[in-house]
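Annex B. Sample input.
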Amino acid sequence: MTLRQPGSTSPYNVLMLAPTMFFADYGAHVRILEEATSLRDLGHRVTILAYPNGRDIAGLHVERCWGVPFNYRIIVGSSRHKFYLDAMLGLKGLQAMPAIRPDLIHAHLHEGALIGAVLSRLWRVPLVFDFQGSLTCEMIDHHFLSPDGAAHKFFRWLEERIDQFPDAVITSSHNAAQLLEGAFGRTKGEVHTIADCVNPDTFRPDAVTARERAALRAQFGIPADAQVVVYLGILQDYQGIPHLIRAAKPVLEHFPDTYFLIMGFPNQARYAALAEEVGVAHRVLLPGRVPHEETPRHLALGDIAAAPKLSATEGAAKLLYYMSTALPIVAFDTPVSREYLGDLGLCAEPGSVEGLADDILALLADPHAARDRGRALRGRVLDRYTWAQGGQRITEIYQKVCPHPRGVL
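Annex B, continued. Sample output.
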């Protein structure tokens, strides 16, 4: 939908709350990175408040809260450590607000929205919440909560309260917007869908030359002429990694020279053991974390991309990186997958190893048709999902909640 233009063209001074180890090479961090850089490129001043343990990237201005000596690892998903880190981030926000004097607060994740609600009311500035999925659903996905436990009822209540605080909510999919409006009671006009986007000049089919591609494949022990199924992201069960590894077995029975390059972290050892158990360890490679800056080159190694995510509420930004790289895609049939892929992806019944394997086999059996699908998916990205469009849409939301910014000094 198109938002009205209140008439202000001044740049905004934005405090962005990122309750994560920003930057780490996965998921929510990538959306935060891309939003912040696109807003900066439009002339806005963006200060990011984050946990202490991330790495600096893209020249962004990041201020970090205090840490503790016994926890310096990257936290993926729900964790009890986030309780004290969120408290420290809130204290950092209280310290930083008088110096930054933002026009508005842009909060990521529910923890950020809760901290942002306090800061926005104390300093009387608008709050924009970047909703990337249900808090309680994520906790269940990460086995942090039982859906039948008393703790789930409390966190569900808290999530409902947090969702009411912001002046506007940005969602990464129409499915998430419907969830907010239906399950959590947000008013429709206050919820704006800005899908995950991608920079197509960075993620492109020719990110590497043929010679560079062969050399990079050789580093992984992959023959230059082999067919490769790639996955790049978090290695967790809710991402469908066990299903992808099990699907490799019937695929290899028909196309024994296919490789499965499953890139990311954590849990590489556990999934390597599963590949050994299934009997596909000789063709399933788990090289570990790939720096975000290297993602375009590593995706170029693939002929087919897999996105077997099982979560029905979270976004799926990796789909757009696959699409922009012109890779044909197999996924599970979730609302977000359908929203991004349209009828151009092959979507199996969620949780079906057989369906996932059949879709991979269909693409391997007809490489020409697979390449046509990949090119059409890149065209869909160029039409709908670039950050040049996304940054402007975020600015329009800023203009709606804060028509008269002081401007960047």
